[in-house]
Every structure is written in C-alpha cells, then in structure tokens.
Fold:
Amino acid sequence: MTCSKRTCMIVAGIGLVMACVVAMARKHQREGEGAAERPTMWDKMRQGMEEMPDDFPPRVMYDNVEAARANTERILEILKPDNGGDKVDDAAKTGA
Structure:
C-alpha cells in the first residue's frame, strides 16, 4: 500500500478541518459562561498549590507571596491618608 501526495494532502486537510471544528465548538461552549465563572490562571495555580504538601518548596514560595501580598495591603491601608479625620495645620507639620 503506497501513500501518494494527494492522499496525504487529503488526510492533512481533513485533520485541519476537524481541528477547526473542535476549536469553534469549544469557543461556542465557553461563550455561555461569564468571565467570572471561568477560573483565571492565578486561581488554577492557587488550587494546585493547596493540593501540594506544606513543605514542598513551590508551596512555601507561594505561601510567602500570599503573605507579602496581605502585608502590602495592610501597609497601604495604614499609609492611606484619612480624609475625614483630624487635620493638622501646615505650621505643625513643618515644626514652625
């Protein structure tokens, strides 16, 4: 049984059409979901990290990133100026 160029091109064409049909079907299926329903890459990574052992090095790094993120949020809240609180006049700020 020999495989001619024409047969190879027909098989390749059918494979390409099938790949396009599958891609379009997946895209059409995802259009029904809202953006909030689909997990983001960060959510997928978080889920994978939660399934890992506590002493696994990537999990330790992930936990450190989460802790740094939480600390940054706390620092930003502390440094955020309070618009409704007591206002110190400019003379008191400069020490004059």
